[in-house]
Amino acid sequence: MTKNKDNKILLTDTLSIAPDSSSLYPKPFDRIVRGRHRHRVSNALGLTKFGVNVVCLESGAFSSARHWHTKQDEFIYVLSGTLTLISDEGHTEMTEGMSAGFPAGLPNGHQVANFSNSDAWYIEIGDRPKNEVVTYPDIDMLNTVVNGKPVFTHKDGGSFSKK
């Protein structure tokens, strides 16, 4: 991250930011997001109140496990390609110029998938609550965010093995 010691507005070439293809999910759920590559724009610009990522989803890739947040609002905007929004309503195709919002506290699990034959690009934006719970309705995982740090457990509170 660039430190802004001179009180200047920071600019960046977004695609020059090294993509982050990692996952915080514990095994075996980390495999869900293989093929997701985030250019973490907010981090590069020193923003701390909300997150902005420019994301490339390879063909066959998913943005996340289907989930919903108790405190975080989320927003996505499709830049190019075709994505499929998966929610309680089913599958909805999203193309360039379309957007979706996911209000905090709405218990409607969501994720986007790329079922097309080429890469798809989108912007994701979300605020950064210090404490919240993220629920994953389709898998045995819960994320309790404490002081900004994710703590993943099974839904019954049990820990994931360190294997």
Supply database-style keywords.
163 residues; mainly beta; Jelly Rolls; four-stranded antiparallel β-sheet; globular
Walkthrough of the structure:
- The structure is a single chain.
- The protein has a domain at 25-128: Sandwich (Jelly Rolls), CATH 2.60.120.10.
- With 163 residues, the chain is mainly beta.
- The chain has one helix and twelve strands.
- The strands form three sheets. A five-stranded antiparallel sheet has the order 1-2-9-4-7.
- The chain is globular, with a radius of gyration of 16 Å.
In short:
The protein contains 1 helix and 12 strands, in the order βαβββββββββββ.
- Looking at the structure, the CATH topology of the domain at 25-128 is Jelly Rolls
Structural class: mainly beta
CATH architecture of the domain at 25-128: Sandwich
Number of strand elements:
12
Low-confidence stretches: none
Helix-strand sequence: EHEEEEEEEEEEE
* Rg, alpha carbons: 16 Å
